[in-house]
UniProtKB/TrEMBL annotation:
Any single Pfam family the record assigns to this protein: M20_dimer
InterPro entries membership: Cyt/Met_Dipeptidase, Peptidase_M20, Peptidase_M20_dimer
PANTHER family, alphabetized: BETA-ALA-HIS DIPEPTIDASE, SUCCINYL-DIAMINOPIMELATE DESUCCINYLASE
Keyword Transport: no
Peptidase M20 dimerisation domain segment(s): 208-349
Protein name in UniProt: Peptidase M20 dimerisation domain-containing protein
Keywords, sorted A to Z: Hydrolase, Metal-binding, Protease
Example GO molecular function: peptidase activity
Gene Ontology terms describing biological process: proteolysis
């Protein structure tokens, strides 16, 4: 391949065009945020259909040939526009569904009413991942009428629900998603002012563990002291998952070391909101604890609530556990190790059953080659400094399905998030200055790929 590198003037022209486009891009983003497209089953799914239609319309206006496809799950949008003869094809991914807003009272402005404060746009999905959708639209607009590459846009509607029908979508429509490069705009950058390519993500499993100690609940005065209650047994079982330092005690799991990037405890405390006096858990570098080692979190417990409590030994209790896995870990093998641990550590012979609810693979990119070179150069063009390779502790499970289906495509994971984004939390927000750079980098990346000729 030869690299007909863009001139500095061409790059500046793209940056200027993107700057001019931003007011409309932002208005379109706000319109998307106003649609409460929560894919979780207990929410109104007609809103997810509305957001799919809104995304489809944005793409149609850019001249793409667009379909909304539903394969047993939530609607996804697939659009395509051909590039110049012989040019590569790029598939651009984002998701239009969002997480539930949580407690509205925890928000400083209504979750589905976008509001700007101090250079950030607040709202559920303002970053994760409607800004990812709009970054793709912005890149298309920057090249309107003169696209340097073929582009396929794939905007999924159920990423926040674990992409249950993605396998079927890939089976039925996968041929339309084939590309030389796949840009997944669903991660973020290292810090405001410092771009990053996400080169590893953790995998994960979600498990429900149920504990039973008695045939039926009984009087705590008559039987307490000799019979174990299920809640206490469950709590002891959960406690067995970490050692005193907070390292995961489940045997036989993959764990690696993260790249040696500067990240100190003070920054972690600040970004995570850790309270003074509460210590970190685990050992090794903080980034390896977050990116390349397994972690275990109890995300829900079923037990008698305090207001319904009586002097009773509970017969049953249950917990939901979310486990994050090293990027290379086979999630089903990790589930087997966790199940063995829970069964082997059942306190006082309690009956323990373990059910796998969800599993997803991690990802470790082969972050080399001409496409990665152009991606890094584009980030440097947009920010004025070179991007770092970072991991993230979160998961985008379908990336491994994409990479299995399109083994020759370079997968580039980008995104709009920064350490203050609070994706999934109250007061989720987008840094508008960084957002413009994300849009510019993607527009420049398409131009750079177009200049790469076989
Ligand atoms: N955008 C996130 C993934 C992510 C998290 C990227 C943190 C960068 C940093 C994505 O939308 C997400 O939340 N994924 C879920 C996957 C789950 C539903 C299978 C996650 O990580 O919990
Ligand atoms: Mn996301």
């Amino acid at each position: 391949m030869t690299d007909d590198t863009l001139t500095p003037d061409q790059i500046q022209a793209i940056r200027d065009r993107v700057a001019d486009l931003m007011p409309q891009v932002r208005a379109d983003l706000e319109a998307l945020v106003r649609i409460p497209s929560v894919s979780a089953a207990s929410f109104d799914q007609s809103q997810v259909a509305r957001s799919a239609e809104a995304v489809a319309e944005l793409l149609r206006r850019e001249g793409l040939d667009v379909d909304v496809v539903t394969e047993g799950g939530r609607p996804a949008v697939i659009g395509h526009v051909a590039g110049p003869e012989g040019s590569p094809t790029v598939t651009l991914y984002a998701h239009h569904d969002v997480q539930p807003p949580g407690e509205e009272a925890d928000w400083d402005s209504a979750p589905f009413e976008p509001q700007e404060r101090d250079g950030r746009l607040y709202g559920r999905g303002a970053a994760d991942d409607k800004a990812g959708v709009m970054a793709h639209v912005a890149a298309l607009r920057a090249h309107a009428g003169n696209l340097p590459v073929g582009v396929t846009v794939f905007v999924e509607g159920e990423e926040e629900s674990g992409s249950p029908s993605l396998g079927t979508i890939l089976e039925k429509h996968g041929d339309r998603l084939a590309a030389d490069a796949i840009v997944i705009a669903d991660s973020g950058n290292w810090a405001v002012g410092t771009p990053a390519l996400t080169t590893t993500l953790r995998g994960g499993i979600r498990v429900v563990v149920r504990v039973q100690t008695l045939d039926h609940s009984v009087h705590s005065g008559m039987f307490g002291g000799a019979a174990p209650d299920a809640v206490t047994a469950l709590v002891r079982l959960l406690a067995s998952l970490h050692d005193d330092d907070g390292n995961v005690t489940v045997d036989g799991l993959d764990a690696g070391e993260a790249a040696d990037i500067d990240y100190d405890e003070a920054r972690f405390r600040e970004e995570s909101g850790l309270l003074d006096g509460v210590s970190l858990i685990g050992s090794g570098s903080i980034l390896s604890r977050l990116w390349t080692k397994p972690s275990i979190t109890t995300i829900g417990i079923d037990a008698t609530s305090i207001d319904k409590a009586s002097n009773t030994l509970s017969a049953k209790a249950a917990a939901k556990i979310s486990m994050r896995l090293a990027p290379t870990q086979d999630p089903l093998a990790a589930f087997d190790r966790l199940r063995e641990h829970l069964e082997a550590n059942a306190p006082w012979g309690a009956r323990v059953t373990v059910e796998l609810e969800e599993h997803g693979s991690g990802f470790a990119a082969d972050a080399e080659g001409p496409v990665y070179d152009e991606a890094r150069a584009s980030f440097a063009d947009a920010w004025g400094i070179d991007p770092v390779d970072m991991g993230v502790g979160g998961s985008i499970p379908f990336i491994s399905d994409f990479s299995a289906r399109f083994p020759d495509a370079s997968i580039i994971v980008t995104g709009v998030e920064d350490p203050d984004t609070r994706a999934h939390g109250a007061n989720e927000s987008l840094h508008l200055g960084e957002f413009e750079k994300v849009c510019a980098a993607e527009a420049i990346f398409l131009a750079r790929l177009g200049a790469l000729r076989a």
